[in-house]
Structure formats: structure tokens, C-alpha cells
Amino acid sequence: MAELTYRDAVIRGIAQEMTRDPDVVFLGEDIAKAGGVFKATVGLYEQFGPLRVRDTPISEQAILGAAMGAAMTGLKPIAEIMFSDFIAVCFDYIANEFPKSRYMTNGQVKVPLVVRTGNGGGARFGAQHSQSVENWCMMIPGLKVVAPSSPIDVIGLLAASVRDPDPVIFLEHKSLYATKGEVPDGEIVDTLGTAKIVRPGKDATILALALMVPRALAAAEKLKNEQGIDCEVIDVRSLVPLDTQTILGSVARTHRLFTVEENPRLCGWGAELVSIVADEAFYDLDGPPVRITTPHIPLPAADILEDLALPSVDRIAERVQRSLNA
Amino acid sequence: MAKIEDRAAAAATLNDDIGEQKRLALYRTQVVIREAEQRAYDLFLQNLVKGTSHLSLGQEAVAAGFAGAMQPGDLSFCTYRGHAHTLARGVSVTKVLGELMQRDIGLMRGKGGSMHLTSVDHGVMGSYAIIGAHLPIACGAAWRAQYKGQKDVSVCFFGDGTTNIGAFHEALNFAVVWKLPVIFACENNLYMEYTPIADVTAVPHPAADRAAAYGLPRIIVDGNDADAVYRTALSAYDKARAGDGPSLIECLTYRYSGHSRADPAKYRPEGELEKWKERDPIKIYRERLKQFGVAEETILGIDAAVKREVDEATEACKAAPPPALDILTTDVYADGGFAWRN
Questions:
Q1: CATH top-level class for B4-329?
Q2: Which of A107, A263, B42, B257 has the most other CB atoms within 10 Å of its CB?
Q3: Does ipTM surpass 0.90 in this model?
């Protein structure tokens, strides 16, 4: 058992998979000799060499296209898109190429790859380096979409993503890189499509993802300590596949549903989950589901504004309390 | 002047770098493409081919020349104008027409359609309908060969219009920097879609004039001459297999039909099509075979056999059922289905 940062967990996860399988290769901008702009790939170039850990030009289409061609023909590439906002410049691969090829070719073409990308706000980088883009990816049939919130999940879910036969978008949260957690020694492999109850409770279910998970947990503690409200917090972890059974089971026990989403409000993942619960567990609910999201705005750079935009511990707690007391 | 019989005898022994056997194969491939594409057009008119379709009539020599230069295991990445390159790799006319006609016997059982012909077993790794997308993908396949020490080469075919999209430039730079065994084959048919390529491109030769920017030689080939294409392609394959990196080849050719089914090609100046038809690739090649002493009946025999093959394929497709409805939701994910939740 060791305490690792989320950043070091990325390194360990990639190294674990590259050690296991020589077909795992890794490409991206500044990921090799420089060790990554977030220092989340330090040492991999030295450990695995220039044939397996390769710096690319600033050519996001070339990065994802090359990853796809390699995946189609037998490698298991991990491609890094430095900031998830940049997915927009190579969205063709995310939207048209990775996810449609297997279907269009009646199963002939397989695209087993992982796109790792730094997602989310909180770093004061402004609107083009801060967005949470999980909903851009979640809406596309054929992709899998994963967003871990803790170091142990980074390793386990990254390993599961690399071993998965489908294209996986792996969203690392920039504001979590420095956070720490206990990680056992040895190989760690998790399962995609499994949500995790990170805090059991009986009064309300709070669904959260990535950076919103520690905030939801803190809000739950605050609600418990200050109001005596006992919230169950679920780390959704995997948007596709989506573990609806864990969520529906929780709602059946707590009878209230809250989502905490960093993405801009429209078409956020919480909307889909609220829809599922409304369809399938309407009579389990004692009140309307509530979505706590970033407003439908681009993210501002100034800290005071960005903090106002992203769901905060206080806002989550206040919104849950207001709804339960209504 | 030598008597005809003498000339024929000389040609039969004439074994230049291409040779008679290869030439007959190059000819046959061009005729297969011509007949199948013409048939596809006729089937549109009967409403038996639905959706859209992009024909390679007039461009047969490019597909034949490249395919002739390939070795088993080499990979092709095509555009939506991909019927020719798919047929050139030996995929049956039935499989191709079946896909165009949305039949269960189609190459992808009707799930892909005209623009996405794929036959991994034949090395046809896909036909891509987003301009430029497959150039980086071909780079990735080439990277795999390089990484694993495998000797196959990947080629991507694309039109002149592709040279103005970002992915073209990203892929060229990437392939040169990584020294990948990949060939970029531009079919310059003078029109991006409806607009002359010259009206929208900074240089006269949309691919070749960009080569210098990536440290590559400027290569232009007569795309209506299958021998010229074959020889140029072969040297690019040799270069790639030797580990000397990518090539960019601009093949000058002309499409006889419009951009797609919907396009009557009225934007073409009067006489242009006729002028190009004088240099029809199949006409050129027939003359060459005759020059080399191939008997008329051999040529006619190939023509008739291909015609028969396309006729039989057409009848087989007409008789074939449409896709089974249960494939609507198959092969979205690797487990064979489309489940996104539990």
C-alpha cells in the first residue's frame, strides 16, 4: 500500500499496461521526453523507450488517426489529447471514425484504443482549456467514456480501458492531478461500467463524476454534520457503459435524486440519468430529481468567477437541503 | 516492316519490367472496374442502387496500377470513391454491387453502403467519407508495421480536393517525421466536387506542389496509363519497404461521370470530356497490349469474361434478399451488440 497522487497513478497505470503487453504504445504531444505538460507521463519514455512512447507534432488529427490505424491493425494505442477542449479539432475521429467503423463494416474493423485527455475546470485556464466535455463523448454510439476521481480508480479503470476491445475516452481531471489516495501494491484492474457507492446514506442519492465526487462527499459530510441529512454519494465513474442498476437501487432506498455535473447544463450526463430514473423509478421518488450543474456558459478565467460557475461544496449542500426541506 | 506474325512472336518473348502476365492482369482489373461501375450507374437508373454513389469511370488505371504493385498483406485505405480500389484488390463484383444494392450478400450486408466499402480479408481497410480522415489512419497502420517490423505498406487514395484539408497536411508531416511506410496517392481528376480544383488551390498541382513542404520529391504520373502508375507505385512500395519513408504521388486523371449520382457535371467546359476520352485508360491499354502482340481474341476473351462476371453478379444481387433486420443493432460494440447500460 502506498499513497499516490492522481498524477502518479496515471504513470503507474500506463506503465502497468505497457509492461504487461508489448502491443501497448503511447503517443501524444510532449508526452515522451518532456514527461507531459501535467507531468502525468514522467519516466515512461525512459522506461519503455522511443519506439513505444512517442512525441508527436501538434497535430491532433494525426494523433487520433494514427492511433486508430494502429489499433485497427493490431496495436493497443494510448493517445493523449493534452486538453479535452482540443477534442474539438479532432472530433471527426471521436464522432465518425472510432465509433462507426465497427458498425459500418459489419464488424470487420476493430478499434481498441484509449484516448486520455485532461478534462475540466478549476485551474483558471479560461474557456478553451477548462471545459468538461464528457457529454460531447457520451452522446456517440460506439464509444466508451470513463472519468475516474481517485488514484486507485485511475489505475484500475485505465487498465480496464486499455484491455477493452472498444474505443475508450478516458477523461482525467486536471484539478485532481495533485490529489492523493491510498493504492495497493501490485496489478490493479477494475471493470468498466461499474458505479461505486463512495458514501452510503439513506436520505438522498447524489450522483457525481470526477472532480465533483470529492465535492459531493464534502457536501454530504456538511449536510450530515449541520442538518442531520444522510446522503448516499455515488461516483458514476463510467458514463458508457452506464451502471444504471447501482443508481436505480440507490434511488429505491433513498427516494431522492441529485446529480452534480461540471459540464454546461444542456445535455449533461445528469439529464440522461434523470430521464432513466423518471422512466423506470418514478414511483420510487419522493420529490423531483435535481440537477446541480455549471450554468450554460463558457468557463471564465478569473478565480472568483470560475469558483462561482462550478458546483461548489456549499452550493451542492444548499441545493440538497433546500430540496429535501421543500 | 515486320510481318504481323513476326511482331507477335517478338512481343511474346518481350519481357520488359512489367511483362505480359502482369499487363493482362492490369488490363483485366481496369475492365472489371469499368464494367462494374457502368453497371452500378445503370442500376441507379433502375432505382436498384439507392442512396449516393461516386464512380471511378475514367480513373481505372490508378486503381489497377497501384493494386498491381501491391503484395499480399499490403493495406489500402480508400475514400467514398472507393469501388475501384476495392475491386482492384480482388473483392468480388457480387460483394460490391450487393452492398450498393443494399442486399444481405453485400460486403457489409448493407450496413455501410457505397461510401464505406471494406474488406479486411483483402487488405481493404475501409472507405472513408470524411475528406482526409483516412490519411492519418493509414499512417497509424504504417506505424504498426514499422513498430512490429512487418513489411507491409499502407496506401491511402484520395482526391485532389483532399489536399486542401488539414488532415492531409498533418498526415504528410507526421509520416515524414516518423518515416512511415505509407504512400499517399492523389487522384487528381481536376474537380474537387463541382468546382475546378484550380479555382480553390494555391498551386497548380494540388498534391505534388505541396511535396516540397514535407521534404518529399515532386511526383506526377499519367494516371490514365496503368503502366506508368504501376511503375511509379512500385518504386514507392520499394522505398517504403526499404524503410525509407513515405511517398506522395499525384496521378493526373479525369472522371467521366459527375461527382456523385446527383451531379450531371454541367460545369465542365464543352469538349473537355471528349478530349479526355481520347486518352481513355482502357483504350490506351488495349492498344498497348496489341502493340506487345497480345492477340485480339485474348483481349476480347477478357472483356467477355468480365462482362459475364458482372452480369452474373447483377443477377445474383437482384435475387438476393435485403439485410436481415436483426443486424440493425449488431456490432456497435465488441460484444456484438449496442448495449450502453445495464
A1: alpha beta
A2: A263
A3: yes
